[in-house]
Amino acid sequence: MNRPARDRLDMEAYLKLETEAERRLLTDPTFYEGLNWGVPRFGHPEGEVYKHVREVLDNIGRLATTEIIRRRLRLIALAHDTFKYLEDKRFPRDWSKHHGVYARRFLEQHTDDQAILDITELHDEAYYAWRLQFLYHEPRAGEDRLQHLLDVMGDNLQIYYLFFKCDTQTGDKNQAPLKWFESTVKGIEVAALEY
Predict the structure, then answer these.
(1) Which has the closest alpha carbon to 166: 40, 72, 48?
(2) Residue 38 in contact with residue 84, Cβ under 8 Å?
(3) Distances (CA, A) of 142 to 43, 122, 127
(4) Cβ neighbours, 10 Å, residue 62
(5) How is residue 70 annotated by DSSP?
(6) 152-179 pLDDT, tens per residue?
(7) Which residue, 18, 55, 153, 193, shows the most beta carbons closer than 10 Å to its own?
């Protein structure tokens, strides 16, 4: 059962929103509802999405990166998991109903930045590729999924990686997919979060 929703101004302060573009997202009722969705669960002991988003934003603040990259990462963070409450997880999965797809469609109303849109949609793909290889023992399927991700990301692979790192180093998430990605994927510069 969800706990009481935070009011919009309280949410804005809690998330430490910085720009008008960030604040504009909160004006959409479906976005706001998604931020308030969630209960403690594996990977997300914090419960509601807005608490996870705050952790990801804090990690972004710990990266040594440019202001442009930082702002792009923040928009991705705000939207990436906000539509989990709409996701259909029945088997077999309909990947067109993944929360990343819903988040991308939402952000298309706010930006035409392809990197932001692609990373938002595919933010879990590195994890899924790792899971296929190491949990489901389907190495070829995992390699294919990773290659598709790399092909889509192209020149935006580094910013994808930075987001994946900031998202993975939250809650009680398994760090093995991140370590695998950092040691396997060519063309990324491994980054550290500064504490």
Answers:
(1) 72
(2) yes
(3) 21, 15, 10
(4) 14
(5) H
(6) 999 999 999 999 999 999 999 999 999 9
(7) 153
